[in-house]
Amino acid sequence: MKKKIALFLVAAMTISTLVACGNNAEEAPAAATEEAAPAEGAAPAEEAAPAEEESGGVEEAPAAGDDDLFNVANYKSDKDKSEWTIAVVTKDNTADWFKRMELGVNEYGEESGINVIQKGPANADAASQVEVVDNMIDQGVDALCVVPIDPGALEASLKRAMEQGIVVISHEASNLENTLFDTEAFTADDFGAAIMDALAEDMGEEGKYAMMVAYTTSTTHMEYANAQYNRQQEAYPNMELINDGAIPTCESEESIDTSYERAKEVLKANPDLKGFTGVASTDCPGIAKAVEELGLDVKVVGVGTPNSFKPYVMSGTITKVKLWDPKVSGYVMCKLAADILAGEDIGDGEGFNAGVEGYENMSLSNGINRCLIGQADITLTTDNIDEYDF
């Protein structure tokens, strides 16, 4: 597959160069060189044919010169699936959230017989994550499933991957351009609104509140935060986001220690604060620790893992945990990538069935990318938190 894509693009570039003086056609970029050897038995480059001949009815393959990296039919692998490698790159493999995701990644590998691996940066920062992604590309993986720290920082690397015929799937990245599909457990608007509804209920629908995200560069975190604010403005006029509505109030940098320090600063500077939300799994444990240490009655609602939140839920400091199961998210990304490599009829993704609860009939949202959305949100309270162990 990768050899076919590379030869196809080189041929397209040659044709474009020959006719450029006559019609000013743009020159197609040459495919990046891959260190790994091409798949054995790859067929020589052919003229573009309708996709139905090769992939069972997926979108029509682009004509020579179109350089359509987003046609899923172009990514059907010539290799047996036992030779595939699907790499999942997370924000931070040491975090409980992504340890849980790895369980789903490994489960899919065991069920399918496909080699799947999960990697994360040594430091939870965008530059370190780019290094990991580049390393996976250079190793010649067949698919990359990425949870970006900063989608913009990964664009060049992921485009290079796609030019080499590597399937790219993302999660928590609705504004990432170079991906075949982004997968989400729900819409950001619905999830952010649900967080605000939970906080408003706890605060009696009045008073000042604050927001924390990991990084302002994290697409989904900012989407959740903006959706919270929009919901508050629409439904809870007696509530007020501090700092004149600046979103977010502070950043945790994917660190519980940092979230604790930032929360203490905010709480001390705003003694009349009544609520606090956090959308990274590292946010609320730090916020709750600061609230308890300072002996305050501040309601905390946010996103995280049951085990790290449980002590604060049982003490009443955190009343509700909003989340989705990262184990299932990891499984879904790998399943989608494998189906594309196998040449399954994905079409535009509408109605994709990943075979797990909440993702049996995913809906398509076309924006910057093709985003496939499930129905898989979870709310944890004292009543059901013991049912989840991660």
Word description of this protein:
It is a single chain. The chain has 390 residues and is of the alpha/beta class. It folds into two domains: 238 residues, Response regulator (Rossmann fold, 3-Layer(aba) Sandwich), CATH 3.40.50; 136 residues, Response regulator (Rossmann fold, 3-Layer(aba) Sandwich), CATH 3.40.50.2300. The protein has twelve helices and 14 strands. α6 crosses α7 and α9 crosses α10. The protein is elongated, with a radius of gyration of 23 Å.
- Helices and strands, in order, run as HHEHEHEHEEHEHEHEHEHEHEHEEE
CATH superfamily of the largest domain: Response regulator
**How many E-type strands?**
14
Q: Provide the domain count.
A: 2
Query: How would you classify the helix and strand content by structural class?
Result: alpha/beta
Biggest pleated sheet: 7 strands, mixed
Strand content: 15-25%
CATH class of the largest domain: Alpha Beta
Could you say what the CATH architecture of the largest domain is? 3-Layer(aba) Sandwich
Shape: elongated
What level of helicity do the residues show? 40-55%
Strand order of the largest sheet: 2-1-3-4-5-13-12
Distance between the termini: 38 Å
Q: Radius of gyration, rounded?
A: 23 Å
